[in-house]
Amino acid sequence: MNKNIFFRLDWFSILIFLLLVSFGIASIYSTTFSEINVSIFNWSTPAGKQFLIFIFCLLMLPLILLVNSNIFEHLSNLFYALSILSLLGLFIFGQKINGALSWYLIGGFSFQPSEFAKITTAILVSKSLSSIQIDLNKISDLIKIILIIGIPVILIFIQPDAGSGIVFFGLLFVLLREGLDIRVLYLGLLLVFLFFLALLFNPIGLSIALFLIFLLTYRLIVRTYPNTNKSPFILVFAISTLFIFSVDFIFNSVFEQRHRDRFNIVLGLENDSKGVGYNINQSKIAIGSGGFSGKGFLNGTQTKGGFVPEQHSDYIFSTIGEEWGFLGSCALIILYTILILRVIYRAEKQIHPFPRIFSYSFASMLFVHFFINIGMTLGLVPTVGIPLPFISYGGTNLLAFSIMLFIYLNLDSNRLN
Amino acid sequence: MIHKIILLVFTIGSSLLFISQLILLQLINSDYSERSKNNAIQERPIYPPRGLIYDRNNKLIVANKPVYDLMVVPENIIAFDTIALTSNLNISKKDLLSRIKNAEKFSKKLSSVLVRQLPMNEVAILQEKMWKFPGFYFQKKSTRDYIIPIAPNVLGYTSETNQREIKTKPNYDLGEMIGRQGIEKTYENLLRGKKGKKLFQKDRFNRIIGPYEGGANDQTPVAAENLNLTIDATLQAYGEALMINKRGAIVAIEPRTGEILSLVSAPNYNPNLLTGRDRSEYFKKLLYDTISRPLFDRSLQAEYSPGSPFKTLNALIGLQENIINPETRFSCNEGHYYAKGAFMKCHCKKGTSNDLIRGIYNSCNTYFAKTFKSFIDSKSSPSISIDLWKKHLEKFGLGNYLGYDLPIGKKGFIPDSDYYDRWYPDKNWGSTTIISNSIGQGEILTTPIQMANFTAAIANRGFFRKPHFKKTNSKSFRDTLYPKNMTLIDKKHFETVIEGMYQVVEKGTARIARIKGIEVCGKTGTVENFIRLNNEKTQLTDHSIFVGFAPKEDPKIAIAVFIENGYWGARWAAPIGSLMIEKYLKGEVKRQWLETRMINGSLIAEYQKPFSGKPFVINE
Fold first, then answer.
1. What is the ipTM of this complex?
2. Which 199-218 residues of chain B touch chain A by CB within 8 A?
3. What is the model's pTM?
4. Which of residues B284 and B620 earns the better pLDDT score?
5. CB B187 within 8 A of CB B470
6. Spatial distance between the Cα atoms of B144 and A174, rounded to a whole number of angstroms
7. What's the pLDDT score for residue A277?
8. What fold, for B43-76+85-119+136-228?
């Protein structure tokens, strides 16, 4: 084993990280480009600010790499407590931006504690799951983990910043990896499927259809395995029916119109390209007009015209689609996929549970961002305003995900210690 | 095991999903790039200035002048002094505010036209105060400037295209200038040039934020062509002056080339009135004047009986078909019985015996009625004769469109056997039934330009070239473009008739048309005409007609003059025709007294007679 950490580093991930951030800054530059401000290093522009944060991240890289790996595990409770406090503090000292109380303003810098809560929650979950006696299929243990995840989620939801809150659900992948019954996933997928069905069809008709399907499957199974118990079928059917009716209720009575619109557009129930569907429609036009090789850097007409809102942050992928075309978009998707797979692959190589689970948490959250953000920009997922890490404009997000990456790098390089 | 690959499967699955969506959006569906162009790029046309129009002597007739549309961007307006603006614009405050409101309804961020086509002098006053009115600005446009305000009937006019039109004319933009009538319409493609375009990048509010791709895809416009008309501006202006307070037409043609020297239709209007801000108001005024009909081009569209000038053609046909020869004499006793109990009057004294030349210069009805009758009766059936007669006349350009380069016209009418067979189903018609045709009355109809044209054919001794308005400078090109249209009549017969026409001016009905030093040939006419008044056929004062050409041996100008209700030919038409000839050939008119009489003479009282509601006397 090499003594020098330099030779133990996952340079491959670092390379992808550098590529993604550079791509990101270039795209931010393009979306906010005007003939007046030509310098990318003008720090008052979004691209300049993002570049500053990037430099700051690079300065933090050696610091995080050189600390003892154990420190994260040991201080996990403290980190977690601090970030819960910072989330609570928002309700007193926070700044309302775009209707959400998610920001601190300190000396001209805005700062979003929910991003750091992602790191600390990931660390505490990793620490808790890495203890030997935990069993996720034991209700009390499960509740403990759910609480760790749930507290920040609830605090973030009431800001309200549902997008950032949803990211924490990515930790479900970690739980599944660490032994949570796989049927939870199936049930989860079933419920997501039912959720969309419930939006499309009448709940009464849907439950009758569901009943018939369950009855039929049960009969078929009984024919081959006569001793099959019928109670799980009844249970799942009951949950499904209850779910369908509650979805119907929540959607029509609890949701606000803007929430309903977001789902309706993705489901094609509504086709209003000027009103609520405007963002997605313009984003699709921008991407679609990029064609195979794109319009070229700084040449995106949609981008220049500012047709896509939030284009330097949440909708950055539409700029990439327009200016770099199919080639550039695919390259970005593939880079991202490789990074996630790389982290998973290295995580599985870990001997100790904590580094493995943390790396896995990192990969999961990265995936959720990737899936929701690009899916939304491509019009496949309802609008949820979360950034694309390393690419989108946003200092806290870049910093938080860089720190998570650096912790992963630290843990990875010290895996044989 | 499955626990370890869940995230892996999800990650790879989503990437594949995203890539397939990208394939769909970027590679398969081409709709998006079109939509992106539509919403991000604005194409602004650049119009080249419209071609200039010169007369045959390179005198500039039509040029362009800038006019200004007052534009407004409602978003940028701040409180302003409405009175200062309205007083200069000549609109009321209420009108101004409602216009601004309409503009606001269209868009707060985009500019709309507030006041159209303000002339330069009005803009100049306001321009220096414009800093007081943020949100308002002037947009320069180009409109026609008639340097010499003549020949509106030839030039036509331009106006902006409308919403309905651009659907059928895809290469025109809304509000682009288009030729509506006359030369402007016929030569639209030359005068228009080829517009260029400038591309601009728009933002989401449709505001221009700069050139698109630095102007790399812009196209520079191709300049329009200038045009030389065959019209002689001086002669045209002179003709229009002579026609003041009269209705009718003057058509002058250069016989050798078919070039139209002037085409006057009276009454007309000042073409400058059809440009600028008050265009539509004046146009309506012209359009709704259904009595004097200034927009009706009498030189091209009015179909009249040709009257006595037509006798020259009947004489030529008679000579060619060997019905008469120059020595043939017919006697006339204040007219003659052409059939039992049917008498045709003539102004010849009792016991007159005319040969052909005298028949022409005395305009003897009897002579031509008898010639015509023997011609019709010379064949085995009148049908054969009348169709032969029509064939001759068609070779003089009668009975059909002449094919000149203006978009309007009338065919006129020459009857044939089918026509009379339809009219007389028993086919019991014959020479006596249709005898009026011999003296240019009857069923024949001609337009003034057709009359000028057949006069040119006589002057040319047997051919005409298609009359036209666009001057072609190369002679050989012109001759192929406008080839000789030969008549079926031998050259020698023309000499006889021309001698007769010369005598008309020397000692016949058109002595007033004599010009010192020029051998003028001509023929007057006096045409009976009727209108339907209160559902009754009412006769009005005769039309005064003159056709002529000069000089006799080397004709430079052939002319037809038609004065509605001017009574006999020598009263108005012959003097006017003669003055035109003198003006054209000598450059100035010596006979001041005649000129003054013609210019100042008015027929307005005559035209008002039928509409006075009282009984009236004609031919006084």
1. 0.89
2. 201-204, 209-210, 212-213
3. 0.65
4. B284
5. yes
6. 79
7. 67
8. Penicillin-binding protein 2a (Domain 2) (3.90.1310)
